[in-house]
TrEMBL record:
Gene3D superfamilies: 2.40.128.20
Domain Cytosolic fatty-acid binding proteins: 7-24
Entry similarity comment: Belongs to the calycin superfamily. Fatty-acid binding protein (FABP) family.
Keywords: Transport
Species of the source: Denticeps clupeoides
Pfam families for this protein: Lipocalin
Protein name: Cytosolic fatty-acid binding proteins domain-containing protein
InterPro entries referenced in this protein's UniProt entry, alphabetically: Calycin, Fatty_acid-bd, ILBP, Lipocln_cytosolic_FA-bd_dom
PROSITE patterns from the UniProt entry: FABP
Length: 138
């Protein structure tokens, strides 16, 4: 493992989340609610096994995976898509934790990395990039 991203992280910025949600086909009512949310990440890790919980007052999403092992992802409660045509895969690329989510949507995935005391996340879908930053809170 390259870096330690475990802990409790609270969102401080969220750029182009709307563009990302539009690319995912999320409707206007849900997007309006979702745009107001401050996401919290709780990241736990044991060796290569990770659990990333994304929490908010509206919806929660929990992802469990082993680095380097393809897995089937169902984005339950989000856009409810299955990523299994080639599966989802998370790997370390240098100090960046990189996920590719193969499925109905093109160029879908995300990248986590640390910069100083901040956790960064870029979310990709089709041609949209959402940039999120989190500060450590435990
Ligand atoms: C997961 C949401 C938009 C539906 C609600 C928004 C609720 C809180 O994939 C993600 O994180 C990775 C990397 O940390 C681990 O799974 C981001 C949130 C993206 C997509 C869909 C809008 C409704 C957000 C769960």
């Amino acid at each position: 493992m390259a870096v330690n991203i475990c802990g409790l992280w609270d969102m401080v910025s969220n750029v182009n989340f709307d563009g990302y949600m539009i690319a995912m086909g999320i409707g206007p009512t849900t997007r309006k609610i979702a745009l107001k949310l401050k996401h919290r990440k709780i990241i736990e890790q044991m060796d290569d096994q990770y659990i990333i919980k994304t929490l908010s007052t509206f919806k929660n999403y929990s992802l469990s995976f082993r680095v380097g092992e393809e897995f089937e992802e169902f984005t339950k409660g989000l856009d409810n898509r299955h990523c299994k045509v080639g599966f989802s895969l998370v790997t370390w690329q240098g100090n960046r934790l990189v996920c590719t989510q193969k499925g109905e949507k093109k160029k879908r995935g995300w990248v986590h990395w640390l910069e100083g005391d901040k956790l960064h996340l870029e979310l990709y879908c089709e041609d949209q990039i959402c940039r999120q930053v989190f500060k450590k809170n435990g």
